[in-house]
Amino acid sequence: MKIAVIPARGGSKRIPRKNIKEFCGKPMIAYSIEAALQSGCFDKVIVSTDDTEIAEVARRYGAEVPFIRPAELSNDYTGTIPVIRHAVEWCMQQGVDPQLVCCLYATAPFVTPKYLQQGLQQIIEQDADYAFTVTSYAFPIQRAIKISPQLGIEMFDSKNFNTRSQDLEEAWHDAGQFYWGKAEAWLSEKIIFGPESTPVILPRHRVQDIDTFEDWDRAEWLFKAMQV
Q: What share of the chain is helix, strand, coil (3-state, %, to 5)?
């Protein structure tokens, strides 16, 4: 069995109620739920939340909310892996035997069924522990600079000052949309950023972190532009 687990706690600090705040006409979480359902990848689409209002919105858009996440897994310091592990263990206690579990973030309006399907194909074909979305940095990280408290400039690694950008190795970062994983990988809390994982490569225009109100505005502009 293949299940999607969408973590959506109610205590977002930087953007209050971010998971269900309206984004281009719909609650933010609706985009993740709809992409999961439209992908045809999943036997179940579950939202893991500690919040009754989020649960109500999730059900309205077609997800299941079969449990309320315990408070000890809903604070500011709880990582993703323990939350998904809890959902997998809950399913197993109910007699459900998930083999592949996809953690799909509630704040990923650019996620598409196509890439969820690609992630599923890759984790199966490569027999990987995880398959997750990545994208490339727009600028070589080897030439990054820092600003001192006195407004001075310093390179993180000055030996790359005279190296042409095209001669530097391309670097990638987590795109923060979804993580397909084997159930046993979640249960054993295996590291995600490791050699047993496979990357689902996204174009940069489909990636936008949404942690601040400035991020939110940029994401809406980008989303609307892509609809045109």
A: 40, 25, 40
Structural domain boundaries enclosing 223: 2-135+173-227
The answer to whether 39 touches 3, Cβ cutoff 8 Å, is no
Tell me, what CATH number does 64's domain have? 3.90.550.10
Residue tagged 């502009």 (tokens): 221
Token readout for 55 is: 């649960």
Cα dist from 28 to 6, 40, 156, 171, 184, whole Å: 12, 21, 37, 29, 30
pLDDT in tens, 131-159: 999 999 999 999 999 999 999 999 999 99
- CA trace torsion 63, 105, 116, 121 (10° rounding): -110
Q: What's the predicted TM-score (pTM) here? A: 0.93
Residue type, 216: W
Secondary structure (3-state) at 105:
coil
pLDDT digits (tens, 9 = 90+) for 151-190: 999 999 999 998 988 899 999 999 999 999 999 999 999 9
In angstroms, the CA 69 to CA 74 distance is 7
Q: Hey, CA dihedral for 55, 73, 214, 209, is it positive or negative?
A: negative
Pair 187, 101: CB distance under 8 Å: no
Domains in the chain: how many in total?
A: 1
Q: Which of 28, 9, 15 is CA-nearest to residue 214?
A: 15
